[in-house]
Specification:
By secondary structure, this protein is an alpha/beta fold. The protein is built from eleven helices and nine strands. Strand 2 and strand 3 form a beta hairpin. The longest helix has 29 residues.
Length: 408
């Protein structure tokens, strides 16, 4: 009887130890950051060729299928441009402004129109300058200048909205820096509204709403602004960039991953499903479940299967993969210290993890091992970062760092 009890007790102890050991393995596995160098098959990236020919394309295909959704094929559209305003000298004659309406026509001959607002300094006539492509919330919201037309998709907005986002567009400082800008309203390409998005993506883009999301259409929008930039002889083709804030920061990141003509990606406070590392779970920050619930039209239905995986640290991928897929081109991530929703620390960790790939590829990046402090930007090499005082916004201070980075 005593022996039987001893055997039973030993069995219980051994079983418990096995369970504890198994659980500990599962916990460790769940908390292991998905490795950018490891294929889904378990094989490892061994050479630069492995990365560029296999791993990088595989990452982009995965994110298209599972996270952002289908991107329209540009060959299915034709583009026409109507000059709305010829080159007009502004800012006391030190810069030019031009306005063009771009008509996008699909295979069914349906069309949408997008107003492109362009600025460049007079020096661009002699020496091509770097250019930022930028999606905004309405061209007229950027300036008090009444000659800037109301954006096509914002015609219902009252005049009081003019210059409401002027703080995000310090045009004189941009011109003084010797850079140019092409900007357009993001909703000119597709509405930021669930029901209108579904109607537009199905009827105009010919994509089922379940198969794609608005972020992919806005990423496509960045590439269409790049199309236009490449047609202008005032811009340096080696200094073509995308700049996005918040939701358009997610789109700018996704655009840069897909379009090799984009040489610089400036990703400002993009947060969840942008630059933020999901593995760095933060209860104050937006989660995958929250973003899928609040903005169901931003992503394809496939992305919903990853709800709550970030809080459990059980995702089979993470956003540093996407940042790394931009290599060898430059990427710059920016934050504000009170923007808890975007999780600044999570964004820096994501960029720092992506840097491992850049360095593996022989590219120069010198991000510090710990997150930089406010006022101490990290700008050496192909990866850059800064964090400023303040909350969720795009301000002159951010632009100053971006302009310095693109001109170095």
């Amino acid at each position: 009887m005593v022996i039987r009890k001893w055997i039973q007790r030993k069995f219980i102890i051994q079983t418990s130890l096995i369970i504890i050991f198994t659980l500990s393995i599962l916990i460790v596995q769940a908390q292991s950051l998905p490795d950018a160098f490891t294929f889904f098959s378990g094989e490892k990236v061994k050479t630069k060729s492995d990365w560029y020919t296999k791993r990088q394309p595989g990452i982009i295909r995965f994110f298209e299928r599972e996270v952002y959704g289908e991107i329209p094929s540009v060959v299915n559209y034709t583009f026409h441009y109507q000059l709305l305003e010829e080159e007009t000298k502004i800012l006391g004659g030190k810069a030019y402004r031009k306005q063009v309406r771009m008509f996008i026509i699909n295979s069914c001959k349906d069309s949408i129109s997008v107003d492109l607002l362009t600025y460049y300094p007079v020096i661009a006539k002699k020496v091509p300058v770097p250019v930022f492509t930028l999606l905004n919330y309405g061209n007229h919201t950027l300036s008090q200048d009444t000659l800037i037309q109301l954006s096509v998709s914002k015609l219902y907005k009252v005049e009081q909205s003019r210059a409401s986002y002027g703080r995000r567009f310090p045009i004189e400082a941009i011109m003084d820096s010797g850079c140019g800008v092409i900007t357009a309203c993001y909703e000119d390409f597709i509405p930021d509204n669930d029901s209108l998005f579904r109607k537009t993506i199905q009827n105009f883009y010919g994509i089922t709403p379940e198969a794609s999301g608005a972020i992919s259409i806005w990423a496509w929008a960045y590439s269409r602004m790049v199309d236009y930039a490449l047609k202008q002889n005032v811009f340096d083709l080696k200094k073509v960039s995308v700049l996005g804030h918040s939701r358009t920061g997610k789109a700018a990141l996704w655009a840069a991953a897909n379009d090799s003509r984009i040489k610089y990606a400036f990703i400002n406070e993009s947060g969840n499903t942008g630059a933020k590392l999901n593995f760095h779970y933060n209860s104050k920050a937006e989660s995958i479940a929250k973003i899928n619930t609040s903005f169901p039209h931003w992503f394809p239905v496939n992305y919903e299967r990853y709800n709550y995986m970030d809080s459990l640290r059980s995702l089979p991928f993470d956003q540093h993969w996407l940042i790394a897929s931009i290599a060898p081109r430059s990427v710059y991530v920016a934050d504000a210290n009170q923007d808890y929703w975007s999780d600044p620390e999570g964004e820096y960790l994501s960029l720092k993890e992506a840097e491992r790939v850049y360095q593996f590829l022989g590219l120069n990046s010198q991000l510090p091992s710990s997150m930089p402090q406010v006022g101490d930007p990290a700008t050496k090499g192909v990866c850059g970062y800064h964090i400023r005082e303040g909350s969720h916004d795009l301000l002159l201070e951010d632009w100053i760092h971006f302009m310095k980075f693109i001109k170095q």
